[in-house]
Design a protein that fits this description.
It is built from 19 helices and no strands. The protein is globular and about 85 Å long. It has helices at about 10-25, 30-35, 40-50, 60-80, 85-90, 95-100, 105-115, 130-140, 145-150, 155-175, 190-205, 205-210, 215-240, 245-250, 255-275, 280-285, 290-305, 310-315, 320-375. The chain is mostly helical. Helix 4 (about 60-80) runs antiparallel to helix 7 (about 105-115), helix 4 (about 60-80) packs antiparallel against helix 8 (about 130-140) and helix 17 packs across helix 19.
Length: about 375
């Protein structure tokens, strides 16, 4: 999620992925949607891999950048919203939250928040989407290893071997989910997300060939998506019909076939983005707001759900087209979050300018006083 050199085609992927995440978190478990949306978070992971391993960052620099731009804003967000979580869940009024503001609630949960263990804090269901932040912090800690693997000085065969091991590990998990094998992993950790990190870097090496805006590459992306989608959809239908307990596994992006869908979407949206040169400024502007939207959309979704907003939209648009209603509803949430983030960023900018003016005025006053003292 780090914002590096501007590339409006990659920014376009980031904006689409952010909207897809919002849509995924509001859908009504439609089987078609479930096979299309879960890869959206992995698109963010691929974008991260696409950029950070091509930079000459040292280990300390990348760690500080990640902490400043991603981890600290997340911690601040959770700390600020913690005392108002009951309002988002409709357990109490906003006025009641203000009246019962408890600073000890923050201190009680602060150790877990600092460890990014959001599942252990009060009303944790509001922060379930922040699992990605914990994964991102692991990427920062493991950056020296991945940077070495992705270095031009390191033979690409080592990287390809690691990618192969990660893919084989996901394959085992897939076969285990289907009940074909009993071993679900050959690695002591979940490699599913890390594979997309390395695939993002691989795509950056061939970006001039794969992300050049050609119709051929648009078609290639669509083929990848269709291939992965058809297999996943077929498996889901089979598991649904057989009432299998493994259905949830395929409702997420845990199986091997999601790799095809994710890579396909990256190629498809990247090439479409290349065609949108005239809109690059608005794309870049929106992209710069995506992390903020990702951060707050979950609690906004909860609040709107408690307000029966979706039912109001359904009454207006009709209940016959579930997918269309969800697309409109997700767009509404996306826009609400965007407005909130713009207001916050403008307030932050105004505050920073005010502080800078105060500092400049103070320096002038001190300089004037010193000059008077020298005259005396």
């Amino acid at each position: 999620m780090l914002m590096e050199d501007r590339d409006y085609s990659i920014d376009f992927i980031r904006v689409i992925a952010c909207y897809m995440i919002v849509l995924f978190h509001i859908h009504r478990w439609n089987l078609l949607i479930l096979n299309f949306l879960p890869v959206s978070t992995h698109l963010f992971v691929m974008i991260t891999g696409y950029f950070i391993f091509n930079k000459n960052y040292n280990n300390k620099e990348i760690l500080l950048k990640g902490i400043k731009k991603i981890i600290i804003p997340t911690i601040i967000f959770v700390v600020i919203t913690l005392n108002f979580s009951n309002w988002f869940l409709n357990k109490s009024s906003l006025l009641s939250c203000f009246n019962n503001f408890n600073i000890f609630l923050i201190f009680k949960n602060l150790p877990k928040i600092l460890l990014l263990d959001f599942s252990g804090i009060d009303n944790y269901e509001l922060y379930e989407n922040l699992w990605y932040i914990k994964f991102y912090s692991m990427v920062l800690l493991l950056y020296p290893f991945f940077k070495t693997v992705c270095s031009k000085k390191t033979s690409s065969s080592y990287r390809k071997f690691i990618i192969t091991c990660f893919i084989f590990n996901i394959l085992l998990r897939t076969l285990s989910g289907l009940g074909i094998v009993k071993i679900d992993s050959m690695l002591p950790f979940n490699s599913n997300d890390y594979i997309y990190l390395l695939l993002g870097y691989e795509l950056s090496l061939s970006n001039k060939k794969l992300l050049n805006g050609s119709i051929k590459n648009v078609g290639l992306g669509i083929i990848f998506i269709i291939f992965g989608f058809i297999i996943q959809y077929s498996i889901c239908r089979y598991l649904t019909a057989s009432n299998s307990s493994n259905l949830y596994y395929y409702m997420n992006s845990e199986c091997i076939f999601s790799v095809f869908s994710t890579v396909g979407m990256f190629i498809l949206f990247g090439n479409i983005g290349k065609k949108l040169y005239k809109f690059k400024n608005i794309i870049n502007w929106l992209s710069n707001k995506t992390f903020g939207i990702y951060l707050i959309h979950y609690i906004i979704t909860f609040k709107l759900k408690k307000m029966n907003t979706y039912n109001i939209i359904e009454d207006k648009l009709g209940s016959s087209n579930l997918i269309f209603n969800e697309i409109i509803y997700a767009f509404l949430i996306f826009m609400i979050c965007l407005i909130i983030i713009v207001i916050i960023k403008n307030a932050k900018k105004a505050f920073t300018l005010t502080i800078n003016k105060i500092k400049m005025t103070s320096k002038k006053v001190i300089g004037w006083i010193n000059s008077k003292k020298n005259l005396l």
